[in-house]
Amino acid sequence: MLNFYSTIQAKFLLILVPLLIYGATTSYDFAVDDHGIINDHAHVLAGVDGIDEIFTTNYRNGILQFNDGLYRPLSLAIFATFEEIAPGSPMPGHFLNIALCALITVLIFFLVKEFPVKDPKKTAFWTALFFAIMPVHTEVVANIKSLDELLSITFALTTCISILSYLKNRNVAFIGLAALTFFLALLSKESSLTYLAIIPLIIYVFFPSTSLKSSAVLMFPLATIAGIWLYIRHTVLSNMPALDPEVFGMLNNPLTIINNYPDQLASALNVQLTGLYKLFVPYPLLHDYSYDYFPVVKMASMYGAFLLALFIALAGITVWGVYRRKYWAFGLAFYGITISPVANIIFQNSTIFGERLLFTPSLGIAFTIVILASKIKAPKALIWGPVILSFVYGFLSFDRQQYWKNNDTLFAQDITHLENSARGNYNYATSLYKKYKDIDRSEAYKDEALIYFDRAISIYPDYLDAWNNKGSLHIFAKEYSLAEKSFLKVIEIQPLYGKAYFNLAVVYQETEKYALAAEYYQKAIDHNISNADAYYGLGYNLGFINKMDEAKAAFEKTIKLDANYSKAYVQLGKIYGQSGQAEKSINAFKKSIALNPNDAESHFYLGITYLNAGNKVEGQKSIEVAYRLDPNFNNVGQILQQLKAQ
Question: What are the structural domains of the chain?
């Protein structure tokens, strides 16, 4: 009788499970980091034309030239391609994530089945299945931005399989394939570099007959590829602006503000224990663990001493097991090696913790569980244990992924567990603010948003984005004095925060303090908010204080930055009309109408310009169109009656 684990049905099941768990995400929106990495990333939004910039700049360079010190061009290039094919659609990204998740599951099977363990295909099947159903993986698969994680492990696993295929068949083509896929893994995510340790570990534990010389020959092409990648990465990043101080700030990683290493280490070990716990007990799963979710742990405390002893013991057992070529120890070592770049133990990372950071390391835990379980001689009644566990974890994964539908569903679900997280409260407050602004102008939304903005600020008083968004909410509610206080507080905390200057300019514009508005639009531009909206606001307010030449220059700059900015053409048309340049005025209004045919203002002032130039026929036509579009605009009805009476 054919062993089930050798059948095509087994492989099909491994593909089917991720599709069943995550299939619904194809209808989901962008969420959390998707917005920054895709929707707000200038190089991604440029489509295929932005790919050159993507490969020659750091990861978040397209977000106002923010330097995060990362180089991950491959996923961004794919996002840019999707933007070219289906602009603004999240569906291609979700489809690709699900497909890669299914592919990864199959790759795990094909890798592990090459290990000389007892019943290799059975071990490979259950390792792959447990990996596929782990609830902590929902953040990676359901969040489009995490394509970098998926690509990294996809190419890294392919590299491992290629190396083992070479050992088996001695076909040099497999070395070439391994070098190529390893390079692609590195272009996906920096942590792929850890496979320079993982591959020798695989050879040492599972293929002890391979000589040290042969291992070195195998690793030389990969080490060369790593060196080339490091050179490219260094060259790109050395030409970028200075590393942004927010990258290693306390909001992202509060471990960075702990003054002594022993307490820093104890606190980091507590975070790592939380990660291990969530692999086995996936509750609660959250989108954010930043300041101040984790407490500071004193190394001198009983708990600190326990953590140190626990992890020294785990490390010791793992090293001993690897030395003795114990298969279960390989899984623990795999976990330790792949988690090390983000563990905040050897060096500081830009984030304290995230479930996505467990994605690749969890493969080691899945393998160790299967190896240890295979050694247990369980009664027949317990044979169904792995199947039941698979259903439970699969259900938990399916249940969690539904909250990743969009920011609103995710933030509302998680907020009850994030009372100590500044960003968690900020995210939920911002979600409520957007509902108030775009969906339902209920005072309840506004009041609740303010409560959570204040909670975020109470946890982290220097939280610039929280102060800024709180002020923006006050602008929308026409509470301009409160808005002004919020933005002035931002500038007090960080004078280089350009968005605060821009928003203060909006406050002064709405309160008809045009000179101040113009001054703060200029300050926003001087502080790197040099977009079309800033230049338009500058020109608009300069016009009110009769600085027409400067206003004209600002509107021309607006159009240079955004050739489709129809309102800038309207304002230029007015300026040209006031200076007697009828032809330029008419052309500007026509350009505005071409961009926005239903704009009553453009038609109205085009008509006025025609009338002033003595062209009554064209003037009346434009006035009639303006009246049809908006009978209440300015005094269009009265002018039209006068024209018809003549």
Answer: 248-375 (no CATH), 419-492 (1.25.40.10), 564-646 (1.25.40.10)
